[in-house]
Amino acid sequence: MEIHFEKSSGINSENELPLYEIWAKTKKGDPNKLLKQGIWAYFLLLIFEGALRKWVLPGLSTPLLLIRDPIAIGLVLIAAYRRLLTFNFYMSGLILIGIVAIYTAIFAGHGNLIVALYGARIFIFHFPLIFVIGRVFTRADVEYLGKVTTILVIPLTILIALQFFTPQSSLVNRGVGGNMEGGGFNGGAMGFLRPSGTFSFTNGSSLFFSFSATFIFYFWLAPKEKINRFLLIAATAGLVASIPLSISRSLFFQIIITLIFALIAVSRKPKYIGKMMKAIAGIAVALAILSQIGFFKTSMEAFTERFSGANESEGGLNGVLGDRYLNGFVGSILSGTKVPVLGYGIGMGSSVGGMLLTGDTVRISEDDWGREIGELGLTMGLLVILIRVGLTLKVAVGSYRKLVKGDLLPWLILSFALLILPQGEWAQPSALGFSVLVGGLMLASTKN
After folding, report:
1. Is the pTM of this model over 0.70?
2. Contact between residue 121 and residue 429 where contact means Cβ atoms under 8 Å apart
């Protein structure tokens, strides 16, 4: 069954207007105003949920872990009530699996209703939110969110720089719930810990900068009026600086993938070569400036040591992608033959589910495909994987068709979606949030 979206009743023919005018008119006259505000709330809470849990309301850190859930539930229910959702194969499949998994978890798995509901909420509410975003967001909304994301790169880079160089006992490094031991992750190098930024865990920071790279490259290739060039240069410098400051190979590889996608786009449209050269020049200037600053040299040394050590043990880009896809898929199937037919129970592999069941984290698998098969059993787990991969392929085809017509935005967003949408760790709140967000933006940017 195909995904069908009716023509939006919002802004369709006014893309020639300056972006701020489109946004102003959208706020005043768009019948989907409430839904769009909810999507923006979901996005902002995705970015700043960790800040609330660490600095603003540390005493409420546990309930704040679910702060985006009421928004997702409300958006899906409102959209369904207004008949804005078309129940397609992907959405109906995961909702059905989520409902069935609640029963199998209770009667054949761990037996805890709360844990089962916590795990099933991903399929029943968060995944359908992808289609809500795709339905109500216009091209102008996607670009505006990209602009806000690009601007946020600047302060968030400053924040992770402060976290990188200050002790874990400092205020900026406060852990979830006000933990004085700090929120840094010990997977760094040279005694430096990986900073978490405004997120609860370090993977959120890496995902944010990976997500922002798609829009930064897009704005370099887009018309000048899309964004202020000074802000774009500053954000580019922040993106470059975030690589060593994050001490994250995943972020480095993701930016390389986005760069490759940009080069493919330019190769198809020679008129973009000049703009791509400007983007490369901007990155070169940023590197030249940053290389003269002491903090960048130090962070580069730590990143280089981490990169070299991890490459020796895990392999480079080919090793990472190979393990993530081919080996990850085969390994998940092989491990699935050892789990019960109906799995151990949905929700068990999440940190919250593990704590409720055993008082500690239950690690079913190192990757999300293995976790899904372990929780749901081989049959339902494989169905979930196939649905995620199928949706990814569908948006990939749609983005390529847009690229052929000269539209670069969906293609560049795909560079991030291609990894996180099929294999993002949905049991982890930040990865789930970015999967939902990028999936919805892909649908919104590829619709007519």
Report:
1. yes
2. no
